[in-house]
Amino acid sequence: MGSYSPSSSSKQEKPGLGWMEWLSGWSHLISELIFQKVMSRHLHNPLLLPPLNGVTCIVTGCTSGIGLEMARQLAESGAHVVMAVRNPNAAHELIQRWQNQSSNKGLLSFEVMELDLLSLESVVRFSEAWNSFLKPLHVLINNAGIFSMGKPRKLSKDGYETHMQVNHLAPALLSLLLLPSLKMGAPSRIINVNSIMHFLGFVETSDMNFTSDKRKFTGLQAYSSSKLAQVMFSSVLQKLMPADSGISVVCVDPGSVQTNVARDLPTIVQAAYKLIPFFLFDAQEGSRSALFAATDADIPKHCMKLKVDEWPVCAYIAYNLRPMNPCEEAYNLSTCQIVWEKTLEMIDLASDALELLLEGKKIQCRYGLT
């Protein structure tokens, strides 16, 4: 179960994006920015959610931005929301405010647990704690992410480039370690909040940590590559997931959203960012694709159809709630398989970890026992 063989027609690794792919990536990004509001004008804001009583959702990075909107709307629809955050105090303050503002005072169901994606040990501790409750988990939304454009390369305490760790490695580890609870809650879903910027990404599998001097490090390159790595890993995860597990894997594009991600952009870019609010989604609009993927009844059927048809990439939902194809590079099956193997190596999980975790067995990694 730990691997699958790419078809002979799959493309081999290459040195980087071709200029046509680069232009195509920017074309997708600019097109989304200009037309997203027109293309999603038919959607309700906020999105209308079904009753979610009895549903448990874990949402990472939900004290600001679109994650905040996800947590609030899921709870208002009846779900029990676990806020997995770096700052528990901020989460408790938000809960208090929401409880005071809610027409159903005291009925919103929240739980706060500390999680720092810059520490893989924290990811393991969180997963151990949640799995020890022996409670079913129905939805995991990997929302937390970073984009430090214009900043020099930084490493986490685990020694990994911070974009790659927060946007890909830590969510991958979290998703795998929570498989026992997700299987218990089946039909369940892993929702990865991705980005249209993965079209500009290229994963150099021999240098996922950006240590080589052959290419100049940029925050844009690191962010887009981490998001592409997430799509590639998700595709193999969905491919290897047994059909009877009842677990669906979905990536979503929230659209171009005006959130506090701009705080890390250069001053001139921040200025431009503030000049185009008409084109940008607000956080509530940006939360719709993840909420749709987490709650729509047809998502498991869509994922299963892709699996039966041996579609090479995971389900991907656009900002307008319609299925979309990820970038061309995401279809490079050879690279996808290498990204899967390299990711397991970087987070110190054995190649049979998926199978063992679905069987409810304990596994060992250097970040802790789970």
UniProtKB/TrEMBL annotation:
Keywords, in A-Z order: Oxidoreductase
Domain of life where this protein originates: Eukaryota
Cross-referenced SUPFAM superfamilies: NAD(P)-binding Rossmann-fold domains (SSF51735)
Give a GO molecular function annotation for the protein.
Answer: oxidoreductase activity
Q: Which InterPro entries match?
A: NAD(P)-bd_dom_sf, SDR_fam
The record's comment on protein family reads: Belongs to the short-chain dehydrogenases/reductases (SDR) family.
Matching PANTHER family, A to Z? DEHYDROGENASE, PUTATIVE-RELATED, RETINOL DEHYDROGENASE
Q: What is this protein called?
A: Retinol dehydrogenase 11
Organism field: Ilex paraguariensis (yerba mate)
